[in-house]
Predict the 3D structure of the following.
Amino acid sequence: MNVLFLCTGNSCRSLISEAVFNQLAPEGWRALSAGSQPMGRLNARALQLLAEKGIPTEGYFSKSWDDLPVTPDIVVTVCASAAGETCPAYLGPVLRTHWGVEDPSHVEGTPEEITVAFEKAYGILRARIEAFLALPLASLSQDRARFKAELDRIGMLEA
């Protein structure tokens, strides 16, 4: 099963989600990330945070949702602007959910305040991914309405 984490710029929150999901996911589950208007580069602070957490990012890059190697089964938007966009038609009837998280790359302040913002975003995303992966995935894969309801509920969780 392929899960797409979508954010407009595909440089920070969607990258963190992709990397964390791929580290924790069971066999047969894979995350990708993309953006509707990709920045073309990954956020250096997000890469640093993932490295500090021991989460590999080799091979990840900022990409457009037009350049996905596979069609996702589930699309998780992690920023407000991506939530309102219409997914490309080629994605078909994918299961969609929204897990809005404040963008830590937009935080201005001291280095400590910026670090806190990145840690908070990471904590929220990791908690939601862990809750996702704790679901009875085999049975929910057969019940799209219930699966979507569970994913929507998870989108309300804080770290």
User: Anything to note?
Assistant: The domain at 2-154 is CATH 3.40.50.2300 (Rossmann fold).
